[in-house]
């Protein structure tokens, strides 16, 4: 299957699976989607991430029958890339969410990129 924007597809699959109260969702695997999924796990938005035969298995996390991810937004798109410096990384929902960036050091969460003084492409926001 040809995907023009695998990150937007990943966010949509997670959002739709949470609304349907699914326990897990399968996402086509790539280095980028795997890195983003690991960041989501580190910050407690999903329970587990594993790579199974070219597909990422993401186990969703619920807090009292409500999804741990209350919202997400794709920022840099294939038709309009958004790059930010280390000082311009936005705070998401007044610090309650995370920004995910693609940097020369790899895919990083916004606060980590700011601490390392590195900017990059602003991929998405999760809250």
TrEMBL record:
One GO CC term on file: ribosome
Source taxon at top rank: Bacteria
InterPro entries assigned: Ribosomal_uS8, Ribosomal_uS8_CS, Ribosomal_uS8_sf
GO molecular function terms listed in the Swiss-Prot or TrEMBL record: rRNA binding; structural constituent of ribosome
Tagged with keyword RNA-binding: yes
Gene Ontology biological process: translation
Keywords: Ribonucleoprotein, Ribosomal protein, RNA-binding, rRNA-binding
Keyword Transcription: no
Quaternary structure and interacting proteins, as annotated: Part of the 30S ribosomal subunit. Contacts proteins S5 and S12.
Similarity comment: Belongs to the universal ribosomal protein uS8 family.
Role of this protein: One of the primary rRNA binding proteins, it binds directly to 16S rRNA central domain where it helps coordinate assembly of the platform of the 30S subunit.
Record-given protein name: Small ribosomal subunit protein uS8
Organism: Desulfonatronum thiosulfatophilum
């Amino acid at each position: 299957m040809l995907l023009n924007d695998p990150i937007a597809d990943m966010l949509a699959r997670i959002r739709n699976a949470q609304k349907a109260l699914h326990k897990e969702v399968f996402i086509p695997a790539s280095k980028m989607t795997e890195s983003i999924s690991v960041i989501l796990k580190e910050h407690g938005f999903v329970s587990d991430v594993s790579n199974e035969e070219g597909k990422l298995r993401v186990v969703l996390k619920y807090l009292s029958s409500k999804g741990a991810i209350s919202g997400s937004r794709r920022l840099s798109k294939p038709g309009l890339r958004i790059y930010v410096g280390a000082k311009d990384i936005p705070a998401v929902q007044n610090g309650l969410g995370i920004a995910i960036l693609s940097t020369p050091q790899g895919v990083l969460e916004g606060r980590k990129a700011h601490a390392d003084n590195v900017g990059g492409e602003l991929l998405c926001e999760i809250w």
